[in-house]
Amino acid sequence: MPGKPIRQLLAAVAVFAVVGAAVAALLLFGEDGPTRPGAPPQESSAPVTTPAPADRVLVVKIDNVAAARPQTGLSAADVVYVEPVEGGLTRLAAVYSSRLPRVVGPVRSARETDVELLAQYGHPTLAFSGAAPEILPLLRRASMTTATEQRVPGAYFRDAARPRPHNLFARPGLLPAGTGPGPRHVLATGAAPGGGTPTAGHTVGFPAASYDFRWSRRDARWHVWLDGSPLLTTEAGQAATATVVVQRVAIRRGAHVEDAAGSVSPVARTVGTGPVTVLRDGRAFEGTWSRRSAGEGTTFTTSSGEPLPRAEGPVWILLVPR
């Protein structure tokens, strides 16, 4: 029939068009595919994590300004440090040891605070997007493996749905393994001491950031709010933690690093001693933090000298200038 070859030709053209569109989409968006604002930068929205070796320690610097939210992979962290940075803002350093998320980010730059802070984890891997020229030599001399996009390009990708510089994500399973004592050895866990004040919520203020921790009896967690809004993760909803440590620290000037407005980046001193507030089990405990040297972990005691360990589960530690 004369129309049959024409129909076959049209069908072949349609098939080639579909295949061509698929190839073009892959070239445009990369292997992870396009993502929606606020959606996980991965082909699946399931919160996929994998167990990590007992001696593995990975630390990822995570952006937390408004344009970087919601973050991905934050719920899998064993410890989340909130560090003061220039302009009164904060940045997160998430420590992964017991499990690794499939994807984590947005990944941002390192700070001088990281050198002393992370020494207590032995020789961890630090994943970050870069650092000021004055800080890079300090990071290279420190006891850590630095893993940037330039050093391990296959472990990073850009999310086309987010603006730069808030769109760099890492695949932790492809990053080099850091080694050392994990959070369980660095930050003791145990039963709460006697006393404490029943607390439904606690606010921690930085010059340009405000964190709220609200106790939930239903899931025995402190839910995290930032600047008046729930701090959301793409894989698990609102961020939550079993323990909150408000560690008051001294601040010093380090390498002369400034932001675009000329604000100098502060350096938090995490070796020494100072006041601390620990939130756990729906109660607030006042006490003292102590760390004798960079290679040792941080301990917490009550005002009467009793050990003040964290509860089982994740912990957020806020390094608040005093």
Automatic annotation (TrEMBL):
InterPro entries: DUF3048_C, DUF3048_N, YerB-like_sf. Gene3D superfamilies: YerB-like. SUPFAM superfamilies: YerB-like. This is DUF3048 domain-containing protein. Residues 53-173, 205-317 form the DUF3048 domain. It comes from Prauserella flavalba. It comes from the Bacteria.
